[in-house]
Amino acid sequence: MATVNLTANTFADTVGGDGMVFVDFWAAWCGPCRSFAPTYEKASDANPDIVFGKVDTEAEQQLAAQYRIQSIPTLMVFRDGILVYAQPGALRAPQLDQLIQGARDLDMDDVRRQLAEKQSAAADA
User: Fold this and answer.
1) C-alpha dist (Å) from residue 64 to 11, 23, 76, 109
2) Domain segments of the chain: what residues?
3) Cα distance between residue 112 and residue 124, in whole Å
4) Are 9 and 2 a contacting pair, CB within 8 Å?
5) CA–CA dist 62, 12 (Å, integer)
6) Which of 6, 30, 49, 64 lies at a 20 to 30 A Cα distance from 14?
7) pLDDT, tens digit, for every residue of 9-41?
8) Active-site residue list
9) Strands (E), the chain
10) pTM attached to this predicted model
11) What family, per the record (predicted)?
């Protein structure tokens, strides 16, 4: 599956649903972004069950600000509508493959339980 361009109009619907969504925040002027792009594209072809989205931070400045993007490329992973990973920096193919496997292996019931506990603790504070 080819990567899909995400905009402020499509972002929430794309990352908010069931399944896994990887999001690459990038810009055309960014050298590391350009070097990461082929690796990201290959991963999207090798994992057709995952949505691989791209956000052009120049065109989508409000979206980049909303997600507090301070360094690009920044990669985010959403699973079943929950942000499970966010880290700046270009990854090599083996690192990206490891991240994909790690996201696949997550116990989402455990993730939801941990989130509920954090929210409960924050509400009590």
Assistant:
1) 11, 11, 12, 29
2) 4-124
3) 18
4) no
5) 13
6) 30
7) 999 999 998 999 999 999 999 999 999 999 999
8) 30, 33
9) 4-5, 20-26, 51-56, 74-79, 82-88
10) 0.92
11) Belongs to the thioredoxin family.
